[in-house]
Amino acid sequence: MIKIAIGLSLFGILVIVAACGSKTSNTTKVIKTSPAGNNLTVALATSDGVLKHGTAEFTLTFADSSGKPVDVGAVALTFHMPQMGTMAEMNDAARFTTTETPGVYRGKADIEVAGEWQVKITYEGPKGRGQASFPLTAQ
Hints:
- The chain starts with a helix and ends with a strand.
- The longest helix is centred in the N-terminal third of the chain and has 22 residues, at 2-23.
- The relative contact order is 0.21.
- It has one helix spanning 2-23, and strands at residues 29-35, 41-46, 54-63, 74-81, 90-93, 95-98, 104-111, 115-125, 128-138.
- Mean pLDDT is 85; it is low at 3-25.
- The chain has one domain (27-138): Immunoglobulin-like.
- It is built from one helix and nine strands, in the order αβββββββββ.
């Protein structure tokens, strides 16, 4: 009887751990991938695959030619929109934190308006210096 109770308790704990793990899973959908120099690529992703204006949270993942994430050291990203008509030029910088996975960085930026932005990413560290830039639409 005690063995059954212990077995059921362990099973219950495993079910709870599995359920909690699935709720905290951090899946992302890639919006854009670009070459980033030094045989690397960088991917910008969000939880729903869409970049939204306002407070935006996203990840940057730097990967080698085999697709394995690699630590690139310090990273920076700026969303740039040139002056249009009477609207002033805008530059919205992101803030980054590292994650448990080297090469994957969690970013946050305040994107002022919806529209076409030019994204500029730079890095400097164990993989040298590099950069990437590409257009991206914020909704």
